[in-house]
Amino acid sequence: MIIVSYVLGIIEAGGTKFVLATADADYNILQKKRISTETPAVTLAHCIDFFKANPVDAIGLGSFGPIGIKQGTQDYGHILATPKPGWAGTDMVGTLTDALHVPVFFTTDVNASVYGEYIAGAAKDVDSAVYFTIGTGIGGGAIQDGQFVGGHAHLEMGHAPVMLHPDDHFAGGCPFHGNRCFEGVAAGPTIELRTGEKGENLDRDNPVFDYIDYYAAQMAWNAYLNLAPEKIIFGGSVISEDDMPRVRAYFDQLNNGYVQVPEELIVHSHFPDNASATVGDFALAEAALKAAN
Amino acid sequence: MIIVSYVLGIIEAGGTKFVLATADADYNILQKKRISTETPAVTLAHCIDFFKANPVDAIGLGSFGPIGIKQGTQDYGHILATPKPGWAGTDMVGTLTDALHVPVFFTTDVNASVYGEYIAGAAKDVDSAVYFTIGTGIGGGAIQDGQFVGGHAHLEMGHAPVMLHPDDHFAGGCPFHGNRCFEGVAAGPTIELRTGEKGENLDRDNPVFDYIDYYAAQMAWNAYLNLAPEKIIFGGSVISEDDMPRVRAYFDQLNNGYVQVPEELIVHSHFPDNASATVGDFALAEAALKAAN
């Protein structure tokens, strides 16, 4: 069957808001709506209403986690043990497909981001990439030859063990790992926990940003050793293009000449306003549609 | 074409010895020879002589590294910047295929090991696995759905950053990273560097083994977060089946209830005498043969 025309849908499912949108086959946005994240019943009913009013042929759904992504298991398509009240156990894919009868590609928000970069962004000319978001939390997604990395479950790169910056004596903000994971020492909330001020009120010369760049570099270094991607891409609200030179310098310090890495390995997201996930979700909707036909 | 009968060859290319062998389609060994690693010219001539005397239809070659594994690049099939005198730049695959005219599957020794475990060992019932060897160095290989993980290059998991055991004040043995990578604090030579004694002369109650189990657990934890495999398998001469309970306990401490991992995630190699790589190399020879036909 040759598909000549179709409409793609996306759900960017976040802990505080959901973004719903439709687009044509060139990813030109047709409709878009932002809703706040309420109970699963209310929020998913809003999603269903939106896509009943604006029918689509497939949906790409990048979700907050943890989620069940291993096909063929009982947990597939579900939100797992999230601390977000009421959401643990929610059958996202089942609820949507029962109501809308279209294929749904279900993955993590960061996998959607890495896919967006891989299809049309910073990784479009390579075969493998890692995407990190540093925001309220820290997440990472990885792709190799078109397949997401992750066997039993999705990746949890933000909780990987961390070597502390020698001057950083912060006790850490991760409820599970304290200062013993990247999220605990480099996620957005650690800035206020360290300084009493929100990041946007601080001068960029504040040492806290030096620490965060060091940890970003260490995340990239750890990812490189564990996955050997051709691109490592940073998104999220905490660091920007301006941080990249310092991140690259710390990466080189950590490597210390051990491995030769690709030119321009470490880059900032290609898309403004963290839109990698939007592009990725549309591309995943398209992949789901093609797989179903 | 239906292949009815064939002979498989392997080369286990190590820094001190090469193992050459042939087997039938059921991996029953037909001939086997061990040679010491001399110059590339001498060593590869021995390999070629062996396989001219004992012809095979394909060769699985698991090699010490670093090696070029990205097909289509200039480095593919070569030994890269090894400190081993004379070996940097050696064209392993080109030299062998020019002389022997059979397909060669070229990968790292640890990738061969993880493949052996995946085909017939501890990971034979799952879709994804990581294999660590802790010996003179520390290496890791990863497989997901039959494909090795690694985009730009092979993995270098042994050099990933490490959080030191709180009681361990060892300065580290890695020439590149000191005590700032797993190899620097947990590879075999660190035992003698710490204690002045070889591991085999020490009581297993020596705290050095506690440290090594802690680092093994941290390697497994880091790998789980970066790759989410269904099995993490330890081989090599430094730790054994007896270490697994303590490794698992440290892993649970590091996780601290954050993620739910598969039952029996962490296991020791299925094969005695670190034979995972032998099985893997034969299976890779078979894969190369099938891909070529």
From TrEMBL, chains A, B:
Superkingdom in the source lineage: Bacteria
Catalytic activity field: D-fructose + ATP = D-fructose 6-phosphate + ADP + H(+)
GO molecular function, one term: metal ion binding
InterPro entries: ATPase_NBD, Carb_Metab_Reg_Kinase/Isom, ROK
Cofactor(s) recorded in Swiss-Prot or TrEMBL: Mg(2+)
EC nos: 2.7.1.4
Pfam families (UniProt xref): ROK (PF00480)
Keywords: Kinase, Magnesium, Metal-binding, Transferase, Zinc
Family that this chain belongs to: Belongs to the ROK (NagC/XylR) family.
Name recorded for this polypeptide: fructokinase
